[in-house]
Specification:
heterodimer, A: about 525 residues, alpha/beta, 2-enoyl-CoA Hydratase, Chain A, domain 1, 2 domains, B: about 70 residues, mainly beta, four-stranded antiparallel beta sheet, 8 strands
Protein backbone atom coordinates (compact mmCIF):
# COMPACT_ATOMS: atom_id res chain seq x y z
CA UNK A 1 0.00 0.00 0.00
CA UNK A 2 1.64 3.22 -1.11
CA UNK A 3 1.22 6.73 0.34
CA UNK A 4 0.33 8.04 -3.05
CA UNK A 5 -3.15 9.34 -2.08
CA UNK A 6 -1.61 11.49 0.66
CA UNK A 7 1.17 12.64 -1.65
CA UNK A 8 -1.45 13.73 -4.18
CA UNK A 9 -3.25 15.58 -1.42
CA UNK A 10 0.01 17.32 -0.42
CA UNK A 11 0.41 18.44 -4.03
CA UNK A 12 -3.18 19.66 -4.20
CA UNK A 13 -2.88 21.67 -0.99
CA UNK A 14 0.41 23.24 -2.07
CA UNK A 15 -1.31 24.38 -5.26
CA UNK A 16 -4.30 25.75 -3.33
CA UNK A 17 -1.94 27.71 -1.07
CA UNK A 18 -0.53 29.48 -4.12
CA UNK A 19 -3.78 31.05 -5.30
CA UNK A 20 -3.44 34.09 -3.02
CA UNK A 21 -6.61 36.20 -2.97
CA UNK A 22 -7.91 34.62 -6.18
CA UNK A 23 -8.30 36.17 -9.61
CA UNK A 24 -10.31 39.15 -8.32
CA UNK A 25 -7.93 39.98 -5.51
CA UNK A 26 -4.96 39.83 -7.85
CA UNK A 27 -6.76 41.94 -10.47
CA UNK A 28 -7.48 44.64 -7.86
CA UNK A 29 -3.83 44.66 -6.83
CA UNK A 30 -2.70 45.09 -10.45
CA UNK A 31 -5.36 47.71 -11.20
CA UNK A 32 -3.78 50.04 -8.67
CA UNK A 33 -0.31 49.51 -10.12
CA UNK A 34 0.98 47.23 -7.38
CA UNK A 35 2.65 43.84 -7.59
CA UNK A 36 1.45 40.80 -5.65
CA UNK A 37 3.76 39.42 -2.97
CA UNK A 38 4.86 36.57 -5.22
CA UNK A 39 5.63 39.01 -8.04
CA UNK A 40 7.56 41.19 -5.57
CA UNK A 41 9.73 38.31 -4.45
CA UNK A 42 10.34 37.28 -8.05
CA UNK A 43 11.32 40.84 -8.98
CA UNK A 44 13.70 41.11 -6.02
CA UNK A 45 15.68 37.86 -6.00
CA UNK A 46 17.87 36.14 -8.60
CA UNK A 47 15.74 34.31 -11.13
CA UNK A 48 14.50 30.94 -9.92
CA UNK A 49 16.29 31.24 -6.56
CA UNK A 50 13.22 31.47 -4.28
CA UNK A 51 12.79 28.53 -1.91
CA UNK A 52 9.52 28.99 -0.06
CA UNK A 53 8.98 27.88 3.53
CA UNK A 54 5.57 26.63 4.65
CA UNK A 55 4.31 25.69 1.21
CA UNK A 56 0.93 24.48 2.43
CA UNK A 57 0.13 26.92 5.23
CA UNK A 58 -3.52 27.91 5.17
CA UNK A 59 -6.78 28.09 7.05
CA UNK A 60 -8.74 25.00 5.96
CA UNK A 61 -12.48 24.46 6.10
CA UNK A 62 -14.06 21.00 6.33
CA UNK A 63 -17.61 19.75 5.95
CA UNK A 64 -19.19 17.28 8.40
CA UNK A 65 -17.65 14.36 6.52
CA UNK A 66 -14.15 15.83 6.85
CA UNK A 67 -13.97 16.79 3.19
CA UNK A 68 -11.88 19.87 2.48
CA UNK A 69 -14.31 22.58 1.34
CA UNK A 70 -12.20 25.69 1.67
CA UNK A 71 -8.54 26.57 1.82
CA UNK A 72 -7.54 30.16 2.53
CA UNK A 73 -3.78 30.52 2.09
CA UNK A 74 -1.67 32.06 4.85
CA UNK A 75 -1.38 35.68 3.82
CA UNK A 76 2.34 35.94 4.43
CA UNK A 77 4.89 34.41 2.08
CA UNK A 78 8.44 33.72 3.24
CA UNK A 79 11.49 31.83 2.10
CA UNK A 80 15.11 31.95 1.05
CA UNK A 81 16.29 33.59 -2.14
CA UNK A 82 19.55 34.86 -3.54
CA UNK A 83 20.54 38.41 -4.42
CA UNK A 84 23.61 38.64 -6.66
CA UNK A 85 24.26 35.04 -5.67
CA UNK A 86 24.22 35.74 -1.90
CA UNK A 87 21.51 34.10 0.22
CA UNK A 88 18.82 36.23 1.88
CA UNK A 89 15.51 35.69 3.64
CA UNK A 90 12.61 37.45 1.94
CA UNK A 91 9.04 37.74 3.12
CA UNK A 92 5.95 39.88 2.89
CA UNK A 93 2.21 40.14 3.41
CA UNK A 94 -0.22 39.01 0.75
CA UNK A 95 -2.41 42.09 0.42
CA UNK A 96 -4.86 40.30 -1.86
CA UNK A 97 -6.10 38.40 1.21
CA UNK A 98 -7.71 40.40 4.04
CA UNK A 99 -5.69 43.46 3.04
CA UNK A 100 -2.58 41.81 4.41
CA UNK A 101 -3.99 41.86 7.92
CA UNK A 102 -2.52 38.63 9.28
CA UNK A 103 -4.54 35.45 9.41
CA UNK A 104 -3.36 32.89 11.92
CA UNK A 105 -0.83 31.04 9.77
CA UNK A 106 0.23 34.29 8.11
CA UNK A 107 1.10 35.83 11.45
CA UNK A 108 3.27 32.86 12.41
CA UNK A 109 5.17 33.05 9.15
CA UNK A 110 5.71 36.81 9.45
CA UNK A 111 7.31 36.32 12.86
CA UNK A 112 9.30 33.34 11.57
CA UNK A 113 10.84 35.48 8.80
CA UNK A 114 12.76 37.44 11.43
CA UNK A 115 13.82 34.27 13.26
CA UNK A 116 14.97 32.67 10.01
CA UNK A 117 17.26 35.56 9.15
CA UNK A 118 18.87 35.56 12.60
CA UNK A 119 19.11 31.76 12.84
CA UNK A 120 20.60 31.28 9.37
CA UNK A 121 22.66 34.50 9.64
CA UNK A 122 21.55 36.04 6.35
CA UNK A 123 20.08 39.45 5.44
CA UNK A 124 16.32 39.96 5.76
CA UNK A 125 14.28 41.80 3.14
CA UNK A 126 10.68 42.62 4.02
CA UNK A 127 8.27 43.45 1.18
CA UNK A 128 5.66 45.19 3.29
CA UNK A 129 2.05 45.96 2.53
CA UNK A 130 -0.64 45.57 5.15
CA UNK A 131 -2.63 47.07 7.96
CA UNK A 132 -1.48 44.97 10.89
CA UNK A 133 -3.87 43.50 13.42
CA UNK A 134 -7.63 43.66 13.12
CA UNK A 135 -10.31 43.57 15.80
CA UNK A 136 -11.84 40.72 13.81
CA UNK A 137 -8.81 38.48 14.31
CA UNK A 138 -7.18 37.00 17.35
CA UNK A 139 -8.55 35.18 20.36
CA UNK A 140 -11.55 35.80 22.56
CA UNK A 141 -13.74 33.05 21.13
CA UNK A 142 -15.83 31.10 23.56
CA UNK A 143 -13.75 28.53 25.40
CA UNK A 144 -10.50 29.56 23.72
CA UNK A 145 -7.52 31.19 25.32
CA UNK A 146 -6.91 34.91 25.01
CA UNK A 147 -3.66 36.85 24.81
CA UNK A 148 -0.17 35.47 24.87
CA UNK A 149 0.82 33.20 27.77
CA UNK A 150 2.57 35.09 30.57
CA UNK A 151 5.79 33.13 30.00
CA UNK A 152 6.11 33.98 26.32
CA UNK A 153 9.17 35.89 25.17
CA UNK A 154 8.61 39.51 24.12
CA UNK A 155 7.14 39.31 20.64
CA UNK A 156 9.26 42.08 19.19
CA UNK A 157 12.54 41.01 20.71
CA UNK A 158 13.56 39.22 17.52
CA UNK A 159 12.98 42.39 15.49
CA UNK A 160 15.34 44.28 17.78
CA UNK A 161 17.90 41.44 17.80
CA UNK A 162 17.91 41.12 14.01
CA UNK A 163 19.24 44.66 13.61
CA UNK A 164 22.38 43.80 15.53
CA UNK A 165 22.99 40.55 13.62
CA UNK A 166 22.13 40.84 9.92
CA UNK A 167 21.37 43.57 7.38
CA UNK A 168 17.63 44.32 7.42
CA UNK A 169 15.82 46.08 4.57
CA UNK A 170 12.15 47.13 4.49
CA UNK A 171 10.36 48.01 1.27
CA UNK A 172 6.84 49.44 1.02
CA UNK A 173 4.91 48.80 -2.18
CA UNK A 174 1.48 49.78 -0.90
CA UNK A 175 -0.13 51.04 2.29
CA UNK A 176 1.82 50.01 5.39
CA UNK A 177 0.14 50.74 8.71
CA UNK A 178 0.07 49.54 12.30
CA UNK A 179 2.59 46.84 13.22
CA UNK A 180 3.93 46.62 9.64
CA UNK A 181 4.82 50.34 9.92
CA UNK A 182 6.85 49.36 13.00
CA UNK A 183 8.59 46.68 10.96
CA UNK A 184 9.15 49.23 8.19
CA UNK A 185 11.39 51.40 10.34
CA UNK A 186 13.12 48.59 12.25
CA UNK A 187 15.59 48.30 9.40
CA UNK A 188 19.00 49.51 8.28
CA UNK A 189 17.48 50.68 5.01
CA UNK A 190 13.82 51.49 4.33
CA UNK A 191 12.54 52.44 0.88
CA UNK A 192 9.00 53.24 -0.32
CA UNK A 193 7.54 53.40 -3.83
CA UNK A 194 6.62 57.00 -4.68
CA UNK A 195 3.23 56.46 -6.32
CA UNK A 196 1.81 53.38 -4.63
CA UNK A 197 3.09 53.33 -1.04
CA UNK A 198 2.09 55.07 2.16
CA UNK A 199 3.43 54.47 5.66
CA UNK A 200 1.19 55.33 8.61
CA UNK A 201 0.87 54.37 12.25
CA UNK A 202 -2.92 54.66 11.91
CA UNK A 203 -4.79 55.05 8.64
CA UNK A 204 -7.38 57.65 7.61
CA UNK A 205 -10.36 56.03 9.37
CA UNK A 206 -8.55 55.78 12.70
CA UNK A 207 -7.27 59.33 12.39
CA UNK A 208 -10.70 60.71 11.60
CA UNK A 209 -12.29 58.87 14.52
CA UNK A 210 -9.58 59.86 17.00
CA UNK A 211 -8.79 63.39 15.93
CA UNK A 212 -11.65 64.47 13.71
CA UNK A 213 -9.37 65.27 10.79
CA UNK A 214 -10.09 63.87 7.39
CA UNK A 215 -6.96 63.09 5.41
CA UNK A 216 -6.13 60.68 2.61
CA UNK A 217 -3.51 57.95 2.95
CA UNK A 218 -1.15 60.03 0.84
CA UNK A 219 -1.67 63.15 2.91
CA UNK A 220 -0.95 61.16 6.07
CA UNK A 221 1.99 59.07 4.99
CA UNK A 222 2.89 59.57 1.34
CA UNK A 223 6.41 59.82 -0.03
CA UNK A 224 6.41 63.62 0.24
CA UNK A 225 5.86 63.32 4.00
CA UNK A 226 8.40 60.62 4.73
CA UNK A 227 11.29 61.86 2.60
CA UNK A 228 11.43 64.63 5.21
CA UNK A 229 10.25 62.75 8.33
CA UNK A 230 13.23 60.46 7.90
CA UNK A 231 11.33 57.25 8.74
CA UNK A 232 12.20 55.92 5.30
CA UNK A 233 15.66 56.43 3.89
CA UNK A 234 14.86 56.60 0.21
CA UNK A 235 11.92 57.11 -2.13
CA UNK A 236 11.85 54.76 -5.14
CA UNK A 237 10.24 55.65 -8.44
CA UNK A 238 8.28 52.36 -8.35
CA UNK A 239 8.47 48.92 -6.77
CA UNK A 240 11.08 47.68 -9.23
CA UNK A 241 13.28 50.65 -8.36
CA UNK A 242 12.78 49.85 -4.65
CA UNK A 243 14.10 46.32 -5.27
CA UNK A 244 17.00 47.65 -7.35
CA UNK A 245 17.93 49.98 -4.47
CA UNK A 246 17.62 47.07 -2.02
CA UNK A 247 20.04 44.97 -4.07
CA UNK A 248 22.49 47.84 -4.30
CA UNK A 249 22.28 48.61 -0.56
CA UNK A 250 22.98 44.97 0.36
CA UNK A 251 25.97 44.83 -2.00
CA UNK A 252 27.97 47.07 0.39
CA UNK A 253 27.26 45.02 3.52
CA UNK A 254 28.42 41.66 4.86
CA UNK A 255 25.94 38.76 5.05
CA UNK A 256 26.01 39.08 8.86
CA UNK A 257 28.05 40.88 11.52
CA UNK A 258 30.50 37.96 11.76
CA UNK A 259 31.64 38.40 8.18
CA UNK A 260 33.44 41.17 6.32
CA UNK A 261 31.82 43.58 3.91
CA UNK A 262 32.63 42.20 0.45
CA UNK A 263 35.50 43.99 -1.31
CA UNK A 264 35.09 43.71 -5.08
CA UNK A 265 37.46 44.07 -8.03
CA UNK A 266 37.72 47.69 -8.99
CA UNK A 267 38.05 48.85 -12.59
CA UNK A 268 38.59 52.48 -11.51
CA UNK A 269 42.26 53.53 -11.18
CA UNK A 270 43.09 54.00 -7.46
CA UNK A 271 45.68 56.62 -8.48
CA UNK A 272 43.14 58.67 -10.49
CA UNK A 273 43.51 62.42 -9.80
CA UNK A 274 40.59 64.62 -10.84
CA UNK A 275 41.68 68.04 -12.08
CA UNK A 276 38.40 69.65 -11.02
CA UNK A 277 39.11 68.97 -7.35
CA UNK A 278 41.63 71.82 -7.47
CA UNK A 279 38.84 74.35 -8.04
CA UNK A 280 35.99 72.54 -6.27
CA UNK A 281 36.05 74.83 -3.22
CA UNK A 282 35.63 78.56 -3.99
CA UNK A 283 38.26 80.89 -2.49
CA UNK A 284 35.41 83.07 -1.17
CA UNK A 285 34.51 81.13 1.95
CA UNK A 286 30.87 82.24 1.83
CA UNK A 287 30.26 80.86 -1.64
CA UNK A 288 28.54 77.46 -1.68
CA UNK A 289 29.72 74.43 -3.64
CA UNK A 290 28.43 70.96 -4.48
CA UNK A 291 30.00 68.48 -2.08
CA UNK A 292 28.35 65.55 -3.91
CA UNK A 293 30.54 66.31 -6.92
CA UNK A 294 33.62 66.09 -4.69
CA UNK A 295 32.48 62.77 -3.22
CA UNK A 296 31.69 61.42 -6.69
CA UNK A 297 35.12 62.36 -8.06
CA UNK A 298 36.97 60.70 -5.17
CA UNK A 299 35.00 57.44 -4.83
CA UNK A 300 35.03 54.52 -7.31
CA UNK A 301 33.12 55.37 -10.45
CA UNK A 302 29.31 54.94 -10.07
CA UNK A 303 29.70 53.52 -6.56
CA UNK A 304 27.96 56.22 -4.50
CA UNK A 305 24.60 55.18 -3.00
CA UNK A 306 23.07 58.05 -1.05
CA UNK A 307 20.59 57.50 1.78
CA UNK A 308 18.08 59.99 3.20
CA UNK A 309 18.95 62.95 1.01
CA UNK A 310 16.03 65.16 2.03
CA UNK A 311 16.12 64.36 5.76
CA UNK A 312 18.63 66.48 7.68
CA UNK A 313 19.92 67.71 4.30
CA UNK A 314 22.88 69.65 5.73
CA UNK A 315 24.49 66.24 6.27
CA UNK A 316 25.00 63.80 3.41
CA UNK A 317 25.27 60.06 4.13
CA UNK A 318 26.08 57.44 1.50
CA UNK A 319 27.58 54.04 0.98
CA UNK A 320 30.31 53.89 -1.66
CA UNK A 321 33.51 52.05 -2.58
CA UNK A 322 37.17 52.97 -2.59
CA UNK A 323 39.33 50.62 -4.64
CA UNK A 324 36.52 48.07 -4.26
CA UNK A 325 36.28 48.39 -0.46
CA UNK A 326 32.81 49.36 0.83
CA UNK A 327 32.94 52.54 2.92
CA UNK A 328 30.39 54.78 4.62
CA UNK A 329 30.67 58.37 3.38
CA UNK A 330 29.65 61.37 5.45
CA UNK A 331 29.87 64.90 4.04
CA UNK A 332 28.41 68.27 4.98
CA UNK A 333 26.27 69.95 2.32
CA UNK A 334 27.02 73.67 2.73
CA UNK A 335 24.01 74.59 0.60
CA UNK A 336 21.82 73.77 3.61
CA UNK A 337 22.61 75.97 6.61
CA UNK A 338 26.27 75.95 5.59
CA UNK A 339 26.33 72.25 6.49
CA UNK A 340 25.46 72.93 10.16
CA UNK A 341 24.36 70.06 12.36
CA UNK A 342 20.62 70.39 12.91
CA UNK A 343 18.62 68.09 15.20
CA UNK A 344 17.68 65.97 12.20
CA UNK A 345 21.20 65.92 10.78
CA UNK A 346 22.45 64.81 14.20
CA UNK A 347 20.01 61.88 14.31
CA UNK A 348 20.80 60.90 10.74
CA UNK A 349 24.50 61.09 11.52
CA UNK A 350 24.38 58.96 14.69
CA UNK A 351 22.23 56.31 13.03
CA UNK A 352 24.54 56.07 10.02
CA UNK A 353 27.67 55.80 12.19
CA UNK A 354 25.97 53.09 14.27
CA UNK A 355 25.10 51.16 11.11
CA UNK A 356 28.69 51.33 9.85
CA UNK A 357 29.89 50.26 13.31
CA UNK A 358 27.45 47.33 13.37
CA UNK A 359 28.68 45.99 10.02
CA UNK A 360 32.30 47.11 10.43
CA UNK A 361 32.24 49.36 7.37
CA UNK A 362 35.05 51.99 7.46
CA UNK A 363 33.99 55.63 7.40
CA UNK A 364 35.28 58.40 5.15
CA UNK A 365 34.25 61.88 6.26
CA UNK A 366 34.46 65.07 4.18
CA UNK A 367 34.41 67.78 6.85
CA UNK A 368 32.79 71.19 6.27
CA UNK A 369 31.20 71.79 9.65
CA UNK A 370 30.30 75.34 10.75
CA UNK A 371 28.93 74.02 14.06
CA UNK A 372 25.63 73.02 15.60
CA UNK A 373 22.69 74.91 14.11
CA UNK A 374 21.80 77.90 16.28
CA UNK A 375 18.70 80.04 16.69
CA UNK A 376 15.27 79.71 18.33
CA UNK A 377 14.09 76.86 16.12
CA UNK A 378 17.29 74.90 16.76
CA UNK A 379 16.81 75.30 20.51
CA UNK A 380 13.17 74.19 20.30
CA UNK A 381 14.22 71.11 18.30
CA UNK A 382 16.66 69.96 20.98
CA UNK A 383 19.58 70.23 18.55
CA UNK A 384 22.32 70.05 21.16
CA UNK A 385 21.17 66.65 22.48
CA UNK A 386 21.02 64.99 19.06
CA UNK A 387 24.25 66.71 18.10
CA UNK A 388 26.06 65.41 21.18
CA UNK A 389 24.70 61.92 20.52
CA UNK A 390 26.34 62.17 17.09
CA UNK A 391 29.60 63.35 18.67
CA UNK A 392 29.51 60.41 21.10
CA UNK A 393 28.78 57.89 18.33
CA UNK A 394 31.89 59.10 16.48
CA UNK A 395 34.05 59.25 19.61
CA UNK A 396 33.18 55.60 20.42
CA UNK A 397 33.28 54.29 16.86
CA UNK A 398 35.19 51.05 16.39
CA UNK A 399 35.69 51.21 12.61
CA UNK A 400 38.71 52.67 10.79
CA UNK A 401 37.96 56.30 10.00
CA UNK A 402 39.42 58.82 7.55
CA UNK A 403 38.58 62.52 7.68
CA UNK A 404 39.34 65.03 4.97
CA UNK A 405 39.17 68.63 6.16
CA UNK A 406 37.94 70.31 3.03
CA UNK A 407 36.49 73.59 4.28
CA UNK A 408 35.16 74.62 7.71
CA UNK A 409 35.59 72.91 11.05
CA UNK A 410 34.16 74.96 13.89
CA UNK A 411 32.91 74.27 17.38
CA UNK A 412 32.04 71.09 19.25
CA UNK A 413 30.06 69.69 16.31
CA UNK A 414 33.34 69.24 14.45
CA UNK A 415 34.26 66.51 16.93
CA UNK A 416 31.52 64.36 15.37
CA UNK A 417 33.65 64.06 12.27
CA UNK A 418 36.57 62.15 13.77
CA UNK A 419 36.54 58.60 15.06
CA UNK A 420 39.34 57.32 17.33
CA UNK A 421 42.69 57.10 15.50
CA UNK A 422 41.29 58.82 12.44
CA UNK A 423 43.54 59.27 9.43
CA UNK A 424 43.34 63.02 8.85
CA UNK A 425 44.00 64.83 5.60
CA UNK A 426 43.57 68.57 5.05
CA UNK A 427 43.00 70.57 1.91
CA UNK A 428 44.50 74.07 1.64
CA UNK A 429 40.94 75.46 1.77
CA UNK A 430 40.50 74.41 5.42
CA UNK A 431 39.43 76.93 8.12
CA UNK A 432 38.89 75.90 11.71
CA UNK A 433 38.66 76.97 15.32
CA UNK A 434 36.22 77.37 18.18
CA UNK A 435 34.02 79.86 16.33
CA UNK A 436 33.96 81.24 12.80
CA UNK A 437 35.78 84.58 12.57
CA UNK A 438 32.61 86.38 11.63
CA UNK A 439 30.75 86.50 14.90
CA UNK A 440 33.59 84.95 16.87
CA UNK A 441 35.69 88.13 16.76
CA UNK A 442 32.73 90.30 17.73
CA UNK A 443 32.20 88.14 20.83
CA UNK A 444 35.80 87.66 21.95
CA UNK A 445 37.06 91.20 21.30
CA UNK A 446 33.93 93.20 22.07
CA UNK A 447 35.69 95.56 24.54
CA UNK A 448 38.56 96.35 22.21
CA UNK A 449 36.18 96.87 19.32
CA UNK A 450 33.86 99.12 21.33
CA UNK A 451 36.82 101.23 22.56
CA UNK A 452 38.21 101.79 19.06
CA UNK A 453 37.65 105.02 17.20
CA UNK A 454 36.24 103.13 14.27
CA UNK A 455 34.78 99.87 15.66
CA UNK A 456 33.98 98.35 12.27
CA UNK A 457 37.51 98.92 11.04
CA UNK A 458 38.95 97.49 14.26
CA UNK A 459 36.82 94.36 13.91
CA UNK A 460 37.94 93.84 10.32
CA UNK A 461 41.56 94.40 11.33
CA UNK A 462 41.37 91.73 14.06
CA UNK A 463 39.55 89.37 11.70
CA UNK A 464 42.28 89.80 9.10
CA UNK A 465 45.08 89.20 11.63
CA UNK A 466 43.42 86.03 12.80
CA UNK A 467 42.65 84.92 9.27
CA UNK A 468 46.33 85.05 8.44
CA UNK A 469 47.14 83.03 11.55
CA UNK A 470 44.77 80.40 10.20
CA UNK A 471 47.03 79.40 7.38
CA UNK A 472 46.79 75.65 6.73
CA UNK A 473 50.58 75.14 6.87
CA UNK A 474 51.17 75.12 10.66
CA UNK A 475 48.82 72.19 11.19
CA UNK A 476 50.90 70.04 8.85
CA UNK A 477 54.15 71.28 10.41
CA UNK A 478 52.86 70.39 13.90
CA UNK A 479 51.59 66.98 12.75
CA UNK A 480 48.05 68.03 13.76
CA UNK A 481 46.96 66.41 10.51
CA UNK A 482 48.65 63.48 8.83
CA UNK A 483 49.05 65.35 5.57
CA UNK A 484 48.17 68.66 4.02
CA UNK A 485 47.38 67.62 0.47
CA UNK A 486 46.66 68.76 -3.04
CA UNK A 487 42.91 68.05 -3.31
CA UNK A 488 43.64 66.02 -6.46
CA UNK A 489 45.64 63.56 -4.33
CA UNK A 490 42.60 62.67 -2.20
CA UNK A 491 41.63 59.48 -4.04
CA UNK A 492 45.17 58.02 -4.23
CA UNK A 493 45.78 58.81 -0.54
CA UNK A 494 42.47 57.24 0.55
CA UNK A 495 43.01 54.16 -1.61
CA UNK A 496 46.37 53.62 0.09
CA UNK A 497 44.66 53.99 3.47
CA UNK A 498 42.14 51.33 2.40
CA UNK A 499 45.07 48.94 1.90
CA UNK A 500 46.57 49.83 5.30
CA UNK A 501 43.35 49.06 7.18
CA UNK A 502 42.82 45.58 5.73
CA UNK A 503 44.49 43.74 8.67
CA UNK A 504 42.32 45.71 11.13
CA UNK A 505 39.18 44.86 9.18
CA UNK A 506 40.08 41.18 9.22
CA UNK A 507 39.90 41.14 13.01
CA UNK A 508 36.96 43.52 13.29
CA UNK A 509 33.95 41.19 13.20
CA UNK A 510 31.18 40.10 15.56
CA UNK A 511 28.38 41.92 17.36
CA UNK A 512 28.86 45.55 18.38
CA UNK A 513 27.47 47.03 21.57
CA UNK A 514 26.71 50.68 22.22
CA UNK A 515 26.54 52.49 25.50
CA UNK A 516 23.77 54.91 26.32
CA UNK A 517 24.18 58.15 24.41
CA UNK A 518 22.79 61.63 25.18
CA UNK B 1 0.96 77.78 -19.04
CA UNK B 2 1.68 76.72 -15.50
CA UNK B 3 2.54 78.77 -12.46
CA UNK B 4 5.38 77.28 -10.48
CA UNK B 5 5.88 78.42 -6.89
CA UNK B 6 9.49 78.58 -5.81
CA UNK B 7 10.21 77.90 -2.16
CA UNK B 8 13.21 78.71 -0.04
CA UNK B 9 15.00 75.60 1.20
CA UNK B 10 16.43 77.44 4.19
CA UNK B 11 15.69 80.06 6.84
CA UNK B 12 17.71 83.22 6.27
CA UNK B 13 17.72 86.70 4.74
CA UNK B 14 17.37 87.90 1.18
CA UNK B 15 20.73 89.25 0.07
CA UNK B 16 20.17 90.03 -3.61
CA UNK B 17 17.32 89.75 -6.09
CA UNK B 18 18.87 88.96 -9.46
CA UNK B 19 15.80 89.22 -11.72
CA UNK B 20 12.81 91.50 -12.21
CA UNK B 21 9.16 90.60 -12.74
CA UNK B 22 8.62 89.86 -16.41
CA UNK B 23 12.17 88.62 -17.06
CA UNK B 24 12.56 85.46 -19.10
CA UNK B 25 14.59 82.82 -17.27
CA UNK B 26 16.18 79.51 -18.20
CA UNK B 27 16.26 76.42 -16.01
CA UNK B 28 18.99 76.85 -13.41
CA UNK B 29 19.13 80.65 -13.64
CA UNK B 30 19.68 82.30 -10.27
CA UNK B 31 16.60 84.33 -9.26
CA UNK B 32 17.46 85.31 -5.72
CA UNK B 33 20.49 84.94 -3.46
CA UNK B 34 19.74 84.25 0.19
CA UNK B 35 22.17 84.56 3.05
CA UNK B 36 21.94 81.87 5.71
CA UNK B 37 24.60 80.89 8.29
CA UNK B 38 27.08 83.14 6.41
CA UNK B 39 26.63 81.20 3.17
CA UNK B 40 25.22 82.63 -0.03
CA UNK B 41 22.46 80.29 -1.09
CA UNK B 42 21.16 80.71 -4.66
CA UNK B 43 17.48 80.15 -5.41
CA UNK B 44 17.32 78.82 -8.95
CA UNK B 45 14.58 78.55 -11.56
CA UNK B 46 13.43 74.89 -11.60
CA UNK B 47 12.38 75.26 -15.24
CA UNK B 48 12.42 77.83 -18.02
CA UNK B 49 9.72 80.52 -18.05
CA UNK B 50 8.90 84.07 -17.15
CA UNK B 51 9.14 85.64 -13.70
CA UNK B 52 5.53 86.29 -12.71
CA UNK B 53 5.99 87.46 -9.14
CA UNK B 54 8.83 88.28 -6.77
CA UNK B 55 7.54 87.99 -3.23
CA UNK B 56 10.62 89.14 -1.35
CA UNK B 57 13.04 92.08 -1.39
CA UNK B 58 16.63 92.46 -0.14
CA UNK B 59 16.98 92.21 3.66
CA UNK B 60 13.61 90.45 4.06
CA UNK B 61 13.83 87.41 6.27
CA UNK B 62 12.50 84.16 4.85
CA UNK B 63 11.42 80.89 6.44
CA UNK B 64 12.07 77.37 5.22
CA UNK B 65 9.46 76.41 2.56
CA UNK B 66 8.31 80.04 2.16
CA UNK B 67 7.31 80.89 -1.41
CA UNK B 68 9.75 83.56 -2.61
CA UNK B 69 8.87 83.80 -6.31
CA UNK B 70 6.47 82.50 -8.91
CA UNK B 71 7.39 81.73 -12.50
CA UNK B 72 5.12 81.05 -15.41
CA UNK B 73 6.28 78.23 -17.60
CA UNK B 74 5.48 77.94 -21.28
Amino acid sequence: MSWEPEVKEIERRRKLAQVQGGKDGIARQHASGRLTIRERIEALVDEGSFQEQGLATAIPDYDDDDNLTGYVPANYVVGFGRIDGRRVVVGGEDFTLKGGSPNAAGLRKSVYAEHMAVQFKVPLVRCLEGGGGSVKGGGGRKGGTVGEPVFSAPRFRIIADAMGQVPVVSTAGGAVAGFPAGRMVAAHFAVMARQTAQVMIGGPKLVERALGVSLTKDELGGAHIHCKSGIVDNIAEDEHDAFRQTRQFLSYLPTNVHQRAPRIDCADDPERMEEELLTAIPRDSNAPFDVREIVRMVMDEDSVFEMGREYGPSQMAALARLNGQPVGVLANDCRHYAGAMTAEAGQKYRRFVEMCDTFHVPIVNFVDQPGFMIGPEAERNGTIRYGMAAVCAAAQATVPWASIQIHKGFGVATAAHYGPNAYVLAWPSVESGALPLEGGVAVAFHREIAAAENPDEKRREIEEQLRQARSPFPRAESFAVHELIDPRETRPMLCRWVDWIQPQLEELTGPTTFMMRP
Amino acid sequence: MARVQIESEVTGNVWKVEVAAGDAVQEGDVLIILESMKMEIPVEAPEAGKVAELLVAPEDSVEEDQVVAVIETA
